[in-house]
Automatic annotation (TrEMBL):
Protein known as: Protein kinase domain-containing protein
Species, as recorded: Favolaschia claudopus
Amino acid sequence: LDQCIKYGGQKAVFRGSVGDQRVVVKIYDAALFDELFREMAAYERLSQVPGVPKYFGVFGPVECAWAALIVQDAGVPVSWDSLDPDERNSVFKIALNIHRAGVHHGDLAPRNVVRDHNEGSIAIIDFGHASLKHTCHDHCAELLSLQQDLQML
């Protein structure tokens, strides 16, 4: 681990490498294991959705008060204003596919939309507030709000 991204609130987030793979490691205190398990389940369900980082697993010592979730490092957060029209469409398409997989993200803010440092590709991250029992018809409140934020309406 070579960079602390966030620390506090019973959770720490780091960037690092496993071999040649750049990763993000989220370390959860036991008090947040419900959030950890929700995020883990969302990444597992979304494993085939383009624009969602690859999930490597959850690791931690048996009967310990912490665990670490490891995912592909998909880049750095964007601002809505920094996105060009194609990137805005990409964000919306990824969010739409997440919803079609039955997942409501729960926190579609710029801090959870990232751009890859090298390729420029867009991804949606951080599923700690997700709901996995979501059914919508492509016009739910979260998607409509995202369209407004992206100035697509």
